[in-house]
Structures are given as structure tokens and as C-alpha cells.
Design goal:
- The chain is of the alpha/beta class and 285 residues long.
- The protein has a domain of 154 residues: Rossmann fold (3-Layer(aba) Sandwich).
- The chain contains ten helices and 13 strands.
- The chain has an eight-stranded mixed beta sheet with strand order 5-4-3-9-10-13-11-12. The chain has a three-stranded mixed beta sheet with strand order 6-8-7. Strands 1-2 form a two-stranded antiparallel ribbon.
- A hairpin with a 4-residue loop joins strand 1 and strand 2.
- It starts with a helix and ends with a strand.
């Protein structure tokens, strides 16, 4: 009964505001269309948990749907998918369930998000999903994760993240590892990496360069349009390390974008009010 109350109250923001102090940190829903039981944070106001709670099966499907379909279509038989910034598993659960032949490695440092992801993995017996309570970065260390009060997808290792606005008191220490040190040395392939880390993608890429050079995976990544427009950050790294080997695309659009064309596109997105956008980066065959 308590779970039902949490689920009902979590579907609308106005009921959350009224019932907030009475809600649990975790609720769960069964999505009949996907044959998935998913655990989430019923208090979340704008993040992945809210999108799931608001529209259930439809919310799960629609959440960054173009990006998920890009990943599904790219993964070969018995492929490997890495989810960096997995949150409650809106990507990892969807892909691991839909493609039981693939292997998924999912990384999520925030304790509540990880606990919910862990319960979902167990409830659905997803043996192809491997989860780790880690942040991925440039080097092995411990850093403060600054937590957003309203968006459980807005936690960030970058204190001035646009979503976070939190003080040191509203943070938790998390373990950070470079991707190169977290994956099995015997991994036969790595086909897709998804990165959504609220401003931390530069450090992720720096710590994953050896892995990216070895496997040349498709990257599905949220990144700063300001950095792309200024040819700094991710743009500068890719230009230095990969030059003409890599190109970009907008999710759901097959048109190739040369790295040299990306700053102009990012500038237009900034003018439209988009500080961050999702891009696909892929290697020429």
C-alpha cells in the first residue's frame, strides 16, 4: 500500500510538493510493455525518475528515445555497451532487457541512484548488466559529488554545474576511476559508450583515451555547446587526438557533421537557449 501511495504521488509535481516529507526515497513500478520492474526516487522533480513516474511505460520509452535507438541499432550481436552516468538505469535497463545478447557495464556514483539501479537489476534478473558504484574520471581519487535538490540526474562533480547549485554541505564523497582501469583487460570489443555526467565529460574522456583509441566506439554524449562553439573542452581533445578520424551527428539524424562544422552548429544551439546538447561522435571506418 505504501508503495502505491508513493507511485501515485510521484506522478505529478503538485502532489509531490504537498506530500514531499511523507514520501520514501524509493518506489517501484512494473512496466508491462517492457516486462520490467523499475525502482526510482518518487521525490525527483525534473530528472529521470520524474520522467518515468509521470508517464510510466510511455515515459520510459520517450526518455531520450532517439539516443537509445541509436545505441540499439549500433550494437552488434554480443556487443558491449558502457553507460557512464547511469542514474536509475533509463538506458542500461532498456538496452540490457531489449538486447539480452549484449554485455552492459553501468557506472553510477550517487548512492540513492545506485541503490535503485541495483534493486532493478536484481528484480529483473539482468545477468548481462554489470553495475558499479563509481564515478568515471581522469584519475583514481575521491571527490565530492554535489547533489541537486530537485533533479536526481543533476548531481555533478563540478560544483558550478547549472543543475546543482549546491554547497559543500549538500555533497557526498565518491570514488572516481578512469574508464581504462575499470573494464576487463580481456574485453573483446567495446561498441558504444554513453556519457551523461553533468559537466564532467572532459575528465571522463581524458581518462578513457586509451580505451577509445583501442576500440573506437561510438560515443553518445551530453556536452557543453559553449565549449564546442569556442573549440575548447571536448572539441579540443578530439581535434588533438583524432583529427580527421572522427565525425559527429545529431541523434536521430544520419547526416555527418565534420568536426570543423561543429562550432557553428553549437553556436546556433546556444542562440536557441540550449546550454548542453546530446551529440554522437563516431569514427570513420
Amino acid at each position: 500500500m505504501l508503495n502505491i501511495i508513493n507511485v501515485i504521488c510521484s506522478r505529478k509535481r503538485w502532489t509531490k510538493r504537498i506530500m514531499y516529507k511523507f514520501l520514501n526515497d524509493t518506489a517501484n513500478v512494473f512496466l508491462k510493455k517492457y516486462d520490467l520492474q523499475i525502482f526510482y526516487n518518487p521525490k525527483d522533480m525534473t530528472g529521470p525518475s520524474f520522467h518515468l513516474a509521470f508517464d510510466l511505460d510511455k515515459g520510459f520509452k520517450n526518455y531520450e528515445e532517439k539516443e537509445k535507438l541509436e545505441i540499439i541499432n549500433r550494437l552488434p550481436a554480443n556487443g558491449v555497451f558502457v553507460d557512464i552516468g547511469a542514474n536509475i538505469g533509463m538506458f542500461s535497463l532498456f538496452i540490457s532487457k531489449k538486447r539480452p545478447d549484449i554485455t552492459c557495464f553501468a557506472f553510477e556514483p550517487e548512492p540513492l541512484n545506485f541503490a535503485n539501479l541495483s534493486q532493478s537489476k536484481k528484480a529483473n534478473n539482468l545477468t548481462n548488466l554489470n553495475i558499479f558504484q563509481l564515478a568515471i574520471g581522469k584519475e583514481e581519487c575521491t571527490l565530492n559529488l554535489y547533489k541537486s535538490d530537485k533533479n536526481d540526474g543533476g548531481h555533478s562533480l563540478t560544483r558550478d554545474s547549472e543543475h546543482t547549485h549546491s554547497s559543500l554541505q549538500n555533497s557526498t564523497p565518491v570514488q572516481v576511476m578512469p574508464l581504462t582501469k575499470t573494464l576487463p583487460l580481456s574485453l573483446p570489443s567495446l561498441d558504444v559508450i554513453k556519457i551523461d555526467v553533468e559537466g564532467g565529460e572532459i575528465e571522463v574522456i581524458k581518462g578513457a583515451l586509451d580505451t577509445i583509441k583501442k576500440y573506437r566506439p561510438m560515443l553518445v554524449m551530453e556536452t557543453s555547446n559553449q565549449h564546442l562553439a569556442n573549440q575548447t573542452g571536448i572539441f579540443a581533445i578530439f581535434q588533438k587526438e583524432f583529427s580527421n578520424q572522427i565525425f559527429s551527428r545529431i541523434p536521430g539524424n544520419s547526416t555527418k557533421i565534420l568536426l570543423s562544422e561543429l562550432p557553428e552548429i553549437a553556436q546556433k544551439k546556444l542562440q536557441e537557449g540550449a546550454e548542453d546538447s546530446n551529440y554522437i561522435f563516431d569514427f570513420e571506418k
